[in-house]
C-alpha cells in the first residue's frame, strides 16, 4: 500500500487504519511494525497513531534517549480507543534503535521476550540499525518526506 499524507493528523489516521486492518489477523507473537525513514519522516507520529488506536492514555513521545518506552493499554472502554473493537493488546512497546549499534544490544534489552508476547504491539523505529534481528513477521512501514508538507507511506504486510 502506498499513500501520501499532508499532516500529522493524516499520518496518525493512516496508522490507525493499518492497525485496524490487521485486527482479525491471527498471531503467535507480538504484532511488530518496523518504521523506516529519515529524520522528520513521521516515524514517531505513526507510532502516536498506533497508540491512539490502542487507547493509550499517556502522551507518546520519541524514545530516542531512553531507547524504549512501554505504554500500558487500558482494558475495555477507554474513551481514546478509536479504531479497535476487540483490542488484544496490553502494551504498546515503542523502540527507537537509532542509538543502538547492533541487534545484540536490543537482544540484551529483552527483545526476544517482547517479540514473543502476543499482548504486545511493537513500533520499532530505525530497524536498519539492528540488522540481523529476526523480523520476518514484521509489518514494514517506510516513510518518506516528499516535500516540506507531504509524506509518503509505503506499507508491506508480510
TrEMBL record:
It comes from the Bacteria. Its main location: cytoplasm. NCBIfam families: T6A_YjeE. This is tRNA threonylcarbamoyladenosine biosynthesis protein TsaE. Gene3D superfamilies: P-loop containing nucleotide triphosphate hydrolases. PANTHER family: TRNA THREONYLCARBAMOYLADENOSINE BIOSYNTHESIS PROTEIN TSAE (PTHR33540). GO terms for cellular component: cytoplasm. It comes from Candidatus Vogelbacteria bacterium RIFOXYD1_FULL_51_18. One of its GO terms (biological process) is tRNA threonylcarbamoyladenosine modification.
